[in-house]
Design a protein that fits this description.
Blueprint lengths: L10 H13 L7 H17 L4 H5 L6 E3 L3 E3 L2 E2 L10 H17 L2 H7 L44 H17 L21 H41 L12
Antiparallel strand pairs: 1-2, 2-3
Helix pairs in contact: 1-2, 1-6, 2-4, 4-5
Length: about 250
């Protein structure tokens, strides 16, 4: 029997699965793309305890999306926290695997936009469009730029390296992913009128011009000093006359 990455459904192993799912990036391109693929792999290997060969052969026909997510008849559990929910990890990947498969990078980037992300809501409770069924296989190899290799499933060797790396990252430090509209800090320019804004821009331009002038002057002085030093070094040294008392 093929060895499993998570060999037994022990409580400690399930706690590790939860940590991995919680810390894997879910937004931003391409790290969110790779993160969602790896979270899907984590569910297959760590939650459902499939072998690597079983995982790499998963196709859309093996997945049922209703009020309960099933993969080859196995129920994918949900949990209270959407960030570490296994069912959410599956639906997040299904949302983007269709355009990833077809090469529609713009659609993938749009779906991974952190400004529109929401990690407080269960993804598995939202309708999932059927584009994911276009992909011939679901566990796609991805290059560093986010392009998928179609017609080839993720290798067992890649799975063996991905899972320990994700587990190590989750054990090392847990950094909450920031999504949604980013609030900008208030500044002294917020309340300026258009005229005042133009005046501030003019003052800034003048300050930049003055700084450039000072830099030019310093550079000129430095070059002049360098020239003087070179001339001094090239001049012959005067020899002292011998002492007549010797």
């Amino acid at each position: 029997m093929e060895a499993r990455v998570w060999p037994r459904p022990a409580a400690a192993d399930q706690a590790a699965v939860v940590r991995v799912l919680a810390t894997i990036p879910k937004y931003r391109y391409p790290i969110g793309l790779r993160g969602r693929r790896d979270a899907f792999l984590t569910v297959l290997l760590g939650t459902l305890h499939l072998t690597r060969e079983q995982a790499r052969s998963i196709t859309p026909a093996d997945v049922a999306v209703t009020s309960i997510i099933r993969i080859r008849g196995h129920v994918v559990p949900s949990s209270d926290d959407p960030v570490s929910c296994a069912a959410c990890a599956v639906t997040r990947w299904l949302r983007i695997v269709g355009p990833v498969w077809t090469g529609f990078r713009g659609d993938v980037i749009r779906l991974l936009d952190p400004m529109k992300g929401n990690l407080d809501r269960h993804d598995c409770e939202q309708p999932v469009p059927g584009e994911w069924r276009r992909a011939e296989q679901l566990l796609l190899p991805l290059d560093v730029h986010g392009w998928a290799r179609t017609g080839v499933s993720l290798s067992g060797r890649s799975m063996t390296s991905i899972i320990p790396a994700r587990r190590a990252a989750a054990a090392d430090v847990s950094i909450a992913e920031k999504v949604g509209v980013v609030a900008r800090r208030p500044s002294r320019f917020d309340a300026l009128t258009l005229q005042e804004a133009y005046a501030e821009l003019g003052a800034t331009d003048a300050a930049v011009d003055a700084a450039l002038a000072r830099l030019t002057a310093v550079w000129g002085d430095a070059r002049a000093l360098d020239t003087d030093l070179e001339q001094a070094a090239s001049e012959p040294k005067l020899e002292l006359a011998p002492d007549s008392n010797e």
